[in-house]
Amino acid sequence: MDHNQQPYFPDGLNMLNDEFDISEPTHTQARPSGSAVIPTSRPRKLTSDVWQCFNIVQMTLPNGTSGPRAKCKFCHKDYATSMRGTGHLRRHMYKYMSAHGQVDTTTQTQLQRHPDGSVTTWQLDAIHARECLARYITQTDQPISICESPFYKKLITSAYNPQFEPVSRTTTRNDLIRLFETQRGDLVAEIQHLSVSVALTSDIWNACSKYNYLYVTGHYLDSDWRITKRIIGFRPMDFAHTAENIFNIIIGVLETYEITHRILSITLDNASVNTSSIALFIARNIPQDGGYFFHQRCACHIINLVVQTGLKQVSDQIDRIRDAISWICSSNPRFSEFKRHCKLNGLKPRRFQTEMPVRWNSTYLMLKNCLEYDTTITCFYNMKLAETGQHSSKILTTDDWYVAKIFVQFLKIFYNDNVTLSWVYYPTSSHAIHQIMEMSELLNSYREYEHLGAAVVAMETKLKNYWANIPLLYALSAIVDPRVKLSGLEVLLEFIGINLSIDYSEQITNIRTKLFEIFLIYESRFDNIETPQSTQSETEPKQISWSLLKRQKKDKSASTSSGQRSSPSSCTELIRYLEAQFDVVEDKEEFDLLLWCIFLY
């Protein structure tokens, strides 16, 4: 409250802060005639904030007494002015005035409870406030200059806390660096405390500012056996994207976190330069405790290459539909007219999302969403082409939509497989064999389709180019799944081989040999580590591969079980796991793969 605008008490009403006295007016002394009368006291300012809502008025009470009274400015109720203070006036102000927004209620009324049980009034912690500001900037991708914005300052100081002191962008930048270093130190300590390996994924990211960055993400199991991912490296690449440079950046990140010899896998995209950089990892980073380094290509990138190969074979039909969708949605007047046609045909108007050339799933979603509108799109688009005299080769036909419908059904399996293998907080390596099985079965079943024959052949060739040799990581991950094990893997590879005309018998022998070798390595490292209980649960989709395993389980003779062939004598625990019976269930919502490992037997 501005003290310069405070009203004054009348003579005889003295107040200091919230206490005042009602006293008799001080009489002036007699002066000679013609002399000025000088009072011996001056009125004091009304310093309490309650006087924003009350006025001092002279009133005569029903009993005949008169004197100063405090009269409310809003409800006009009057109260006594007492030498005991203004507490009764304040209670009236909060009780009746706050609900109408007429009172400044900035006085602290909330308490803060501490862990030790003590209760104090809340106080502003400037350091904590700056840390929260730094977290807000990083988590919402705000510019550092927001801290100097006058609108931001007004928002915080006027609406939230007037005690907050705005900071400069330089201070905020230093707070961000300090926060990053603190969190990185905590992450290094967390990873060092765990005795698990780390799986890495890395890619080069292109910023809108034309700068390139290489990021490295670590995936590992925490102390509760929950899958955790952390971005452990985000380095600028202002030099040539060579294999040596990529290798040096990733190695620098690993050395920062001291996990150079604790790498389980490194997954990169399908660029040729990454293939060369992986060769450098294999040549220079042999695991200290034994083991293998091998090049593992990203499954989702391979699926993308396979589908893109098929899209090229049906490009004529897809291109005509794509051109029609782009033409309709690229102009607001045309789209408004298209909306009227939709309403005339009893369809809900919608704007179709156009595809992105580098993402095949955007093509799938575009075709899937517009199939319901095929007749309306065809009539509207062909009518407009006729009006403008466009070439007849651009006209949409029923054959185009027929091919699109079949292709959407065909791509649905690839889309679901891509989504499954893109999970973050659930193990995905053990699903890769099942996805390959699904795709091989799909290609085999669509081989005889007239409009998709060429696409299926091209996609099958591309699939065999990458997965004719099943990656060892996929095989071992499937074996660790107690619903599959080695016998189930043999069944899946057998059917994949039938669909793709591949003989996997030699690979199965090699997989079995590697399995026992790697088990001995893990046994020497983790034999005394207690297996915690997993608290993670996530739903898995149903697949025909599980039905296949269930049907083949009874037909699989115990004599063909890999566990009964010659094995190292020290691997009895692994043999017991491979021979133990486990029911293959199709409904897997309650199954948590992380609860199972080969050390449970």
Automatic annotation (TrEMBL):
An annotated Gene Ontology molecular function: DNA binding
Residue stretches in coiled coil: none
Residue ranges of the TM segments: none
Pfam family, one: hAT-like_RNase-H
InterPro entries noted in UniProt: hAT-like_transposase_RNase-H, RNaseH-like_sf, Znf_BED, ZnF_BED_domain_contain, Znf_C2H2_sf, Znf_C2H2_type
Annotated signal peptide: none
GO terms under biological process: post-embryonic development
SMART domains, A to Z: ZnF_BED (SM00614)
Highest taxon of source: Eukaryota
Compartment annotation: Nucleus
BED-type domain ranges (all copies): 45-107
This protein's record includes keyword Zinc-finger: yes
Protein name: BED-type domain-containing protein
Source organism per UniProt: Dipteronia dyeriana
